[in-house]
Specification:
Layout lengths: L4 E3 L4 H11 L6 E5 L2 E4 L3 H5 L7 E5 L3 H10 L4 E2 L1
Antiparallel strand pairs: 1-4, 1-5, 2-3, 2-4
Length: about 80
């Protein structure tokens, strides 16, 4: 995934949905907020971040998986 995806959570349910969806993929995902980063598959890690801020996700998944992820996360990820 060369492109960085912007992520914005409105509530904890969206965090759960986000982690559940990306956990299906065999790739590493990192979520960034400013200079702080966490494993995006970790609910606990994400909850240590300020959910009111926009975040960015980077990954090493391929283009096909990236398109599937963006489609599944339409309400959270701004492609």
């Amino acid at each position: 995934m060369d492109k960085i995806l912007e992520v914005k959570f409105s509530n904890i349910e969206e965090v759960n949905k986000f982690v559940r969806i990306i956990s299906k993929y065999d790739a590493d995902f990192d979520l960034y907020c400013g200079s702080y980063s966490v494993d995006a598959k970790s609910i606990l890690g994400i909850m240590t971040m300020d959910l009111r801020n926009k975040m960015w996700m980077k990954s090493n998944c391929d283009q096909n998986d990236r398109e599937k992820i963006v489609d599944e996360l339409k309400s959270i990820v701004a492609a």
